[in-house]
Amino acid sequence: MQRGLNLLQQFAGTFIKDVNLGVILIDTDFKLIDISDMACRVLGLVKKDVLEKPLDYIFATLPAEHQMVQRSILDGVVVRNHALSWTNNEERYELLLDSNVLRDDDHQIAGAYIIFKDVTNLRSLEEQVQRSDRLAMIGQIAAGTAHEIRNPLTSIKGFLQVLRKTLSEQGLERECGYTDVMLTEMNRINELVNEFLLLSKPKNVSYTSVHLSQVVRDILPIINNEAILHGVIVQCELSDQLPMVIADREMLKQVFLNICKNGIEAMGDGGRLTITERVDPEERKVNIEIHDTGPGIPLFVIDKIFDPFFTTKEEGTGLGLSICQRIIHDIGGHIRVSSKGFGTTFTLSIPFP
């Protein structure tokens, strides 16, 4: 019996220390008795600083309803497979949480445990599949209708331009102003149609070996001009030692321009846009980080920014980031976004052979 007890104690100690799970043990006073290394990493805690401390103290900066552990757990409330999003100062995690009470020999509650798994990658993959399905559906609709919209637009625009010229020759300036408004709105419709077409699989994709640093250098004059208009400083940390990637050069330019322009427009005078290139040899990917010093993206919005038609801009279509994500996904890469309440970083990871 004693041998079995010792073995159980050894297992418990090893489980807390080595297992790749978040484990939290609390007593009936709502104090933290033990915590696994993985839980410390996810929650942004230092083990020696939080042991024997009340959980109210540990999570004092959070409202009660947003704390991971509620006092109701000590009343016997059982939780199974509860999905929870958690953000510390460094990263955001998607967690799956279980909790239950621990009872002594007299069946009295002696404490409680919380166990959680990090399912961030699985949730991210699921969301990517859902977005890809939505984009594919929208792309099919776009491919079938965009040309039908564009053809009459071209005719209407042509006749309006002729009409405007005639009105101008007759000195009817007010009527000319009306035609200018119509032509401007038609151009907006045409731009939206162009973005619809980009959602469908492009027919003229040209995948070749591409040097990412050169792609960024090619578009730097455009980015710098946009930055000057908004009083933003652009800083680049480019490398000539990057491995080549297989991609469509023009589409990569579109992705970089779109994300850089979004970052520039999010900042006021004195903002800074930083473009950094790094190689991840273990994952065999090149990472391009585009960081702005803007106000950041709220947590309730950050999950939606890649959704088609979601936009916070008054005149935005909500398709730009969706298209960027599809372009990067089509070459086997992915886009991550992180925002800490001040500043936003987009990381584009592109595999190399």
Describe what this molecule looks like in 3D:
The structure is a single chain. By secondary structure, the protein is of the alpha+beta class. The chain contains 10 helices and 12 strands. Strand 1 and strand 2 form a beta hairpin.
Task: List the main descriptive attributes of the protein structure presented here.
single chain, 353 residues, alpha+beta, five-stranded antiparallel sheet, 10 helices, 12 strands, 46% helix
Question: How is this structure best summarized?
Answer:
The chain is α+β, with helices and mostly antiparallel strands.
Layout of secondary structure:
Layout: H1 2-18, E1 22-27, E2 32-35, H2 37-43, H3 47-50, H4 55-58, E3 79-87, E4 92-103, E5 109-118, H5 120-169, H6 173-199, E6 208-210, H7 212-230, E7 233-237, E8 245-247, H8 249-266, E9 272-280, E10 285-292, H9 299-302, H10 320-330, E11 334-339, E12 344-351
Parallel strand pairs: 7-9
Antiparallel strand pairs: 1-2, 1-5, 3-4, 4-5, 6-8, 9-10, 10-12, 11-12
Helix pairs in contact: 5-6, 7-8, 8-10
Mean pLDDT: 78
The count of β-strands is 12
Helix and strand composition category: alpha+beta
Helix content: 40-55%
Unreliable stretches covering 5 or more consecutive residues: none
Distance between the termini: 58 Å
Number of helices: 10
Q: How do the SSEs run, as a string of H and E?
A: HEEHHHEEEHHEHEEHEEHHEE
Query: Rg, please?
Result: 27 Å
Query: Which band does the percent of strand residues land in?
Result: 15-25%
Main sheet characteristics:
5 strands, antiparallel
Molecular shape: elongated
Strand order of the largest sheet: 2-1-5-4-3
